[in-house]
Design goal:
Blueprint (H helix, E strand, L loop, with lengths): L9 E4 L10 H11 L3 E4 L6 H18 L3 E4 L2 H7 L3 E4 L6 H8 L4 E6 L2 H9 L4 E4 L16 H10 L4 E4 L17 E4 L1 H4 L4 H13 L2
Parallel strand pairs: 1-2, 1-8, 2-3, 3-4, 4-5, 5-6, 6-7, 7-8
Helix pairs in contact: 1-2, 1-8
């Protein structure tokens, strides 16, 4: 995997609470078939063994379609399954420490909510930043609110990709266009839909509308 070629356009973040009768790996595959370009496993309420087993299954799917797999928070799980990278928040291990553990070839993303945090992440070696919440969200209670103007300022101030996250749906995704960001990260807008593939396709279509 060449980090410089990573496509951040439609970044799927997992949450099994939105999946009804499907396995996580099946849901991820359906999302990829609809156009998801990057996958992050974010499982807050499972034990380490369950996380590891699920991550291995999802890795198999991602490898099949040549889509990078990122692990949320858990550097140990990322190392155990040789994932493509890790995403950390402001209260997780510092980006610089994660980089020293994972090495130069792995992708590291950092959650940010303002220009200062984003610049610090870039300085510490992040490959991209996730910025949010850009809209109200129910999947992350502690997410700070970020205006479209602030999102745009972050994008202008950084040399690394910027991905918006938080409450993004097919109804509001086009509002992010003026910020000229590199991608959007979504959970319920894909996994919360009956037809996951179609939901991903709809988001990709909205992103292409000028």
């Amino acid at each position: 995997m060449n980090k410089k070629n990573v496509n951040y356009t439609l970044y799927l973040v997992t949450d099994r609470s939105f999946i009804k009768d499907k396995s996580l790996d099946k849901a991820v595959e359906e999302a990829i078939l609809g156009g998801a370009t990057l996958v992050q496993i974010r499982e807050k309420d499972v034990d380490s063994l369950d996380f590891y087993k699920e991550a291995l299954k999802v890795k198999g799917v991602c490898k099949k379609y040549d889509v990078p797999l990122i692990i949320n928070d858990r550097v140990d799980i990322a190392l155990a399954i040789d994932a493509d990278g890790v995403h950390v928040g402001q209260s997780d291990l510092p980006c610089s420490i994660v980089r020293s553990i994972l090495g130069a070839e792995k992708i590291i993303g950092v959650s940010t909510s303002n220009v200062e945090e984003a610049l610090k992440a870039q300085e510490d070696g992040a490959d991209y930043v996730g910025v949010g919440a850009v809209f109200p969200t129910t999947t992350k209670d502690d997410a700070d609110s970020v205006t479209i103007e602030e999102l745009s300022n972050i994008k202008k101030g950084l040399n690394i990709p910027v991905v918006a996250i938080g409450g993004i749906s097919e109804n509001n995704i086009t509002k992010l266009k003026p910020a000229n960001i590199d991608g959007v990260a979504v959970i319920s807008a894909i996994l919360g839909k009956e037809n996951i593939t179609k939901a991903a396709e709809n988001l990709i279509h909205k992103l292409k509308i000028r």
